[in-house]
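testing teh design pipeline on a random one, pls ignore if ur not involved
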């Protein structure tokens, strides 16, 4: 059976490439490298050859790298469509009374010259 040019492809090539890249960056090999890097950083920090702040920066980078799918999902607002409300309920707000006229002027004393 031939496919029409107007049919939606099963998977977008860009989405497939992004999934492959995410699997590569957060896969088993990357986790192994990160564990070994943090171990080396710990040894260097304990021996005094690496400042603590630089070591913490690398550890924070590992957290961001391995948490990137969750962070991206949160930023893009990925939610289940079934849990969204179907209708918007708006309540009526009571009219607020007008505010009284203020007699306070913060700049009044700055422009008056007292001799």
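output:
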């Amino acid at each position: 059976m031939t496919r029409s040019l107007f049919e939606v492809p099963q998977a977008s090539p860009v989405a497939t490439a992004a999934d492959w890249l995410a699997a590569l960056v957060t896969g088993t090999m990357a986790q192994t490298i990160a564990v070994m890097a943090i171990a080396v950083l710990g040894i260097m920090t304990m021996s005094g050859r690496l400042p603590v702040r630089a070591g913490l920066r690398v550890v924070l980078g590992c957290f961001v790298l391995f948490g990137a799918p969750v962070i991206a999902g949160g930023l893009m607002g990925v939610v289940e469509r079934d849990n969204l409300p179907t209708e918007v309920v708006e309540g009526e707000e009571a009219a607020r009374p007008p505010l009284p006229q203020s007699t306070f002027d913060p700049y009044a004393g700055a422009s008056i010259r007292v001799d």
